[in-house]
Design a protein that fits this description.
mainly alpha; 6 helices; binds iron/sulfur cluster; two-stranded antiparallel sheet
Length: 127
């Protein structure tokens, strides 16, 4: 969606890359029935990550990003996310796959997790 609006391209760390803000843009949206003119901001032709930069891939502490920018999300989440809800849940005697799915959806919607790694964003020289 963000690529279509012209505000960036998917970068080598799997995140939206903008030549001014690097991977530090978040996509937000408003649902409306208003008839609005087509617009894009910033109005530019984004080219994506420069060919000679691999900082995010090289500095991931667990090598979760491959050369094509595909992120091993399971490995990344396991390393970077600490969820008190999930930790407490795992202490219960029987946990099934449906329970895991439910807790994943819950943390995605109402995230009380802590993140200890965002290195693939912080090392990007574009800001
Ligand atoms: S958040 Fe950390 S562990 Fe996950 S891909 Fe980025 S650098 Fe790697
Ligand atoms: S660190 Fe380099 S390769 Fe990674 S997102 Fe930033 S510009 Fe792109």
């Amino acid at each position: 969606m963000a690529e279509v609006t012209g505000i960036g391209k998917i970068g080598k760390n799997g995140l939206l890359f903008n030549s001014q803000y690097g991977p530090r843009l978040l996509l937000g949206g408003v649902v409306t029935t208003a008839s609005l003119p087509v617009s894009a901001w910033p109005e530019r032709d984004e080219k994506g990550c420069p060919g000679n930069c691999f900082a995010c891939q090289e500095q991931c502490p667990i090598q979760a990003i491959d050369k094509n920018g595909k992120v091993n999300r399971a490995a990344c989440i396991k390393y970077s996310m600490k969820s008190p809800i999930f930790t407490n849940f795992m202490k219960t005697p029987s946990v099934g796959s449906e329970d895991i799915q439910m807790i994943n959806h819950l943390t995605a919607v109402d995230d009380h997790s802590m993140y200890r790694c965002i290195r693939c964003v912080s090392v990007c020289p574009y800001m």
